[in-house]
Amino acid sequence: MSFKKILGQDKAVSILKGFAASGRVPQAMIFSGPQGCGKAAAALEFAKTLNCLDGACQKQQDNCSVCVNCKHIENGTHPDIIFADFAYQAALEKSDPEERQALLEKTQSIKIITTRALTSASQQKAAFAKWKVYIIDRAETMERGAANSILKFIEEPPQNTVWILISCNKEKMYSTIRSRCQDIAFAPLPDDILLKILRDNFVEESIAKRAVRYAQGSSTKALKAAEILSDIAALPDGPAFTTAFALNLPKTLALSRVQVSFALEMLSCRTYEEWTKESSSRKEDLQNLLTKLVFYKKAITRNVSPAMVAEAALISAAQEGISLKN
Ligand SMILES: [Zn+2]
Q1: Using CA atoms, how far apart are residues 97 and 291, in angstroms rounded to an integer?
Q2: Which of 99, 135, 254, 323 is the most buried (most CB within 10 A)?
Q3: Ligand 1 mean position to 255 CA, how many Å?
């Protein structure tokens, strides 16, 4: 597919192509920007471009997606290119698929077991890549020990080795890490590109247009909003909606939490939109609702039933005339 599939990130892509053309690649970079704007995909396209065996593609600082290096990188099977996310970490910790899934649902940080696997691989001779690339997703969640364990490796990596740290919240990363990395900024995606992504994922036009309102430049959020809007389309309007929404939540606690947490974000988005337009006394009521929604969001991370939080939040929002149904 090549860099062409990275939509709306011309500036970041042109910087990366410049590195590939000159061969002067920073030893460590932070790809920063909103969740779901193409950072991880760009990291993999960059790894492919550095290692592509197709001469014609190399001349255009792009990749062919079909040579042995490109294929292995795309399939996640290249021994010299590691994409370390929570799933990779869970696979290091648990071999049993069910235990791994249970662990994955609880995972909130990148641990030292993961960074050690990468640093150890980085010291091996490359199996068949020209450039070894180590990518850490959600790098802002790195635990202190994990962050410390990569410091000397990102500062002085072996030749032709690149570290890419992906983050949608780079301010939360340790300054010792940030100061050793070059920042590559990714922009929030504009609405027309988000709409294209939704259409490419077969989201119905009317749902797609509404979902974009909640996306804040993120394709992940746009797709999640579209999923929730499609799910609730068949539910009754009015007071019955609240209970129907709660009953319709996923049965597992982890999934139900994710669903309610995002629904609360959607309600906050709508409330904020109304708040900015309002100048009358209703402004204060909307302000109070925003505060309540923040409180409900915190409650979700504690031991409170997601269904109960959802009902309370939807009722509070409905009192201000705000509903996910319209
Ligand atoms: Zn290739």
Answers
A1: 40
A2: 135
A3: 38
pLDDT per residue as tens digits for the range 274-325: 999 988 888 999 999 999 999 999 999 887 899 999 999 999 999 999 999 8
Please indicate, yes or no, whether residues 135 and 258 belong to a single structural domain of this protein.
no
State the alpha helices, DSSP H only, in 34-85: 39-51, 55-59, 68-75
What's the domain count of the chain? 2
Task: Give the integer Cα–Cα distance in Å for 102 and 86.
Answer: 12
Q: Determine the distance separating the centroid of ligand 1 and the alpha carbon of 50, expressed in angstroms.
A: 9
Flag whether 324 is in a domain.
Answer: no
Same domain for 150 and 55: yes
- Which 3 state secondary structure label does DSSP give 262? helix
Residue 122 Cα, ligand 1 centroid: separation in angstroms? 22
Q: Under DSSP, is residue 117 helix (H, G, I), strand (E, B) or coil? A: helix
**Domain end residue (candidates: 185, 207, 231):** 185
Q: Are residues 149 and 247 in the same domain?
A: no
pTM for the whole thing?
0.87
CA of 26 to the centre of ligand 1 (A): 21
251 Cα–ligand 1 center, Å = 43
Neighbours of 64 (CB within 10 A): 19
